[in-house]
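Task: sequence in, structure out. Protein: DIS3-like exonuclease 2.
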Amino acid sequence: MTDKLTFSVIWTLTPKGKILKEWFGRTIIRSCTKLSYEHAQSMIESPTEKIPEKELPPISPEHSSEEVHQAVLNLHRIAKQLRQQRFVDGALRLDQLKLAFTLDSETGLPQGCHIYEYRDSNKLVEEFMLLANMAVAHKIHRAFPEQALLRRHPPPQMKMLNDLVEFCDQMGLSMDASSAGALNKSLTEIFGDDKYSLARKEVLTNMYSRPMQESGPLESEAMVMGVLNQAFDVLVLRYGVQKRIYCNVSGQLGQGGRRPLGPGTAPALCPPSLHSHCRGSSQCPWPEQPW
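Result:
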């Protein structure tokens, strides 16, 4: 496995996902193995069964398949708690069907298609990515309260949303779109579990996705580092992840409670004396690379 130089946030978490300790810094990630979503899903679905090593990718000698299996189960249990709390806090999820293709192993050409299934292994990764995104946003905002590059989920286009609620009401469907949590509750509780109900829910989910706007910087000036405190205070997330501070970071989910962060985190980790004199990117003391 190739070592990766990066920035990480490392947490000490309770079984219910409460953060006890949090650390940001430069790290070296040496993965013990590279699991696919299918591998992780098999471990989640068979918590007491040992997965044959021949069905897993290579694991470094310092670790065993049992250790990896237990780590996945631990993360899954915490992710379930994080997800449950997120929706209690009023998050909204609008899942739309995605088409996936199977490729020929030799030619790389499509040989079939199917509906992509969003499973527990996907949810596990999603929860820790969201947790890291929010942690990074808090870190950056604390370091640069007037210049933080943050992202937000803007409120939906209200006219489209109100028209849709009125249309549903005419069809005999009482939908509450007063908040993200209310809309999520309506979509979750209004239908049963039979195929017909699920199909109707898919249609409504698609329709309610249209008024939603994609996330973006807090203000257009954010691209030139001009976010103001007033804007941060006013622009509270109302839909989507339902958190006040959020940003996007890229990279793979690391082992355990570690999440690689983007190189933009470097300024927040540098002592103020190193960057207080900088007037532009050419004067920044941190390199583009994360080490």
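DSSP finds nine helices and seven strands in the chain.
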